[in-house]
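**User:** I keep going back and forth on a fold encoding question. It is easy to fool oneself when nobody else works the same problem. Could you pick a protein and write out its sequence and tokenised fold? Could you put it straight underneath, so I can go through it closely?

**Assistant:**
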Amino acid sequence: VHAAAVEAGRDPDELIMEMGVQTEGKSADQIRDDILRREEFGAKRISLNLGGDSPEGITEELKRVADILHADWLS
């Protein structure tokens, strides 16, 4: 990405790489590892793709992931 930006005449420091993480069915350790791998790759933004087949299911998954993030990065 860096080389392509330079070749296109763009400043690579102005680019923001965004990557996603699927959370449904993954353990807390798997979610942490996925996030850290994306950060190591250079992602500046990470979208969380929450699973769930109903508003309630999505809300429960969001609460679970929020607890994981809070325990690791927000506390």
